[in-house]
Write a structure and sequence with these properties.
Strand content: 35-45%
Radius of gyration: 24 Å
CATH class of the largest domain: Mainly Beta
Mean pLDDT: 85
Low-confidence stretches: none
Order of helices and strands: HEEEEEEEHEE
CATH topology of the largest domain: Immunoglobulin-like
Number of helices: 2
Largest sheet: 6 strands, antiparallel
Helix content: 10-25%
Length: 151
């Protein structure tokens, strides 16, 4: 009878160890870093100024030799325990991005007033990044990334 109880205890112990290992593996995949950092396009600098919970001013400067192009569309991601996650868009309204093409010639500096409240709502305190696809003529598209914080 004692032998049987010892086997049951070993079985329970092994089951607990297996459950803990599965839990640790799941934790690893849940909280691993996803996509940080993204290296910026060479010759295109950007920063967000005049920040508020509902918008900011995007300042872009082309220090390279070729023009950079982009559309109006951008995405905002928030940094959390699991890495960067895209903010959910407002599902109550159907917003479309304007079909415009912007360009920044070599040596130019441009500013753009952004209002993300309609698309994402007011941002809470935290660390964020704005992502926008940019490209040069006949070259691959890259991600322009601007990191910012809402205090």
């Amino acid at each position: 009878m004692k032998n049987n109880d010892a086997l049951k205890m070993k079985y329970i112990l092994y089951c607990v160890i297996i459950i803990i290992l599965i839990f640790l593996v799941l934790l690893f995949f849940r909280f691993r870093n996803t996509g940080d950092p993204i290296s910026p396009p060479e010759g295109l600098n950007a920063e967000l100024t005049d920040l508020s919970t509902s918008g900011g001013v995007l300042q872009e400067e082309n220090t390279g030799d070729d023009s950079w192009y982009h559309e109006a569309e951008y995405t905002i991601e928030r940094k959390g325990f699991g890495g960067w996650k895209a903010l959910p868009e407002n599902s109550e309204i159907n917003l479309a991005w304007p079909d415009l093409l912007y360009y920044i010639n070599p040596g130019e500096r441009k500013t753009e007033q952004l209002n993300w409240e309609y698309r994402y709502g007011k941002l809470e305190t935290g660390n964020y990044r704005l992502l926008r696809e940019v490209w040069q003529e006949d070259k691959l598209r890259k991600q322009l990334v601007v990191y910012f914080e809402i205090p």
